[in-house]
Amino acid sequence: MRWLQAVSPSSIFVRTTGILLVAFLTFAVLILGTVAHFTILPLARSAGDDLAALMLLSARSWAEIPPPARREFNDRLLRNHGLRITDLRETLPPADKLPAPYLAFVQESLSRRVGFDVPLRPQQRDGERWYWADLSIGGQNLRIGLAHDRIVTRRLEGVLTVAVITVLLVLITSIFMAGGTTRRIRRLSAAVADVSQGQLPEPLPEKGPREVRMLARNFNTMAHEVRELLANRTTLLAGVSHDLRTPLTRMRLSLEMLREIHDPKLIDGICDDLEAMDRIIRQTLALSRDLETREEQTVDLVALLEQIIADACRSEGDISWSSAPASCSRHLNPVALQRVLANLVENAVRYGEGQPVEVALECAPTVVIRVLDRGPGIPGDQLEAVFRPFHRLEASRSAQTGGSGLGLAITRQLAKANGWDVSLHPREGGGTEARVVLPNTRR
């Protein structure tokens, strides 16, 4: 089945073979024509001139030697040079069009050397084909001929050989060029089909031409991101289910207790649980909604950070600029960036243990935004783990002490969706540095 697909008219292999076949045949015809015009024909003309000179010399020698020695001379001439000299006893057919350019060159040279037109006329003799020229030398009329076998060429065999070699070269080249590419494309097609069916294929080997390597690398990156997305969504759903189960259980117990006793504290607890559930649902929906937002515009990052700092300060946060340029404009998604920075600032205030939080902005071709706190810091082995949904440093998974566990997950997902980089680093002297790197998007 794969073989039939490979040789179908629409396959890369067949198209590549056709293109190469036309190219190789055209190249062969052009090369043969060039070699024939500049090399073969001049050599044939020179060889024809030499043969005409030999024929004239042989005829003059034959006319000068005694008649008894002419037979032996003729035998030696036939044996060594493929020539024969006779008298004009037989009548030959009229001159016809010569079948080879070489004979035309011989005829032209003979005519030029004797000073008048000397046609070569064909004759079938003793099962062989001969070409004869009538000459008048030393008062004698002679007829000198050359055998067809002396000048025979195998043109048809040569053309067929060139054609066969061309076809073989084309097939070998096509198999070498298109075979590997088509195999990689079929493997990529199968991997894409696996992804469309919800399966996660193995990474494709990044081999072959540069374009194929880039395609395989991009697909592997996409498959890795899809794998991470599915893992995050699975963790997200599991975390939502887990975190909703706890307040629902408390609410059920409270409602059962309210059947027997009316206690305002139970009602307040139910309200708190409903608020926690609403917060979890809102954050989960916000993550999905913000990941789909793609509207971009030119934003003054200094003004955006000042607004985020002002909003955080109204919530009893102590936040100040560490360094900031006069202005810094970039073309990006302002909603996503505001959510990313607001989450980082909120975390810095929450875990900063009441210490001032600093914000720094570097507006080089690559923008770097830093949010620095003086909290207890994050262990080195947890700097990446905290970006997973519902991952908290507190083992109790308490929403009061550790939040919902979605803030940094939302931050990382939004950053990756917009081509930004978010990372956490230990701060010298204690605390944590949250770093956001924006590529150069100036317009």
Automatic annotation (TrEMBL):
Its topology with respect to the membrane?
Answer: Multi-pass membrane protein
Report the GO terms under cellular component: plasma membrane
What CDD domains does the annotation carry? HAMP, HisKA
Q: Where are the transmembrane segments?
A: 12-40, 159-179
This enzyme's EC code(s):
2.7.13.3
Top-level EC class: transferase
Q: What are the subcellular locations of this protein?
A: Cell inner membrane
Catalytic function, reaction form:
ATP + protein L-histidine = ADP + protein N-phospho-L-histidine
Concerning SUPFAM superfamilies, the annotation shows:
ATPase domain of HSP90 chaperone/DNA topoisomerase II/histidine kinase, HAMP domain-like, Homodimeric domain of signal transducing histidine kinase
Q: Return the protein name.
A: histidine kinase
Cite the HAMP domain residue spans from the record: 179-231
Q: Which UniProt keywords apply?
A: ATP-binding, Cell inner membrane, Cell membrane, Kinase, Membrane, Nucleotide-binding, Phosphoprotein, Transferase, Transmembrane, Transmembrane helix, Two-component regulatory system
Q: Which Pfam families match?
A: HAMP, HATPase_c, HisKA
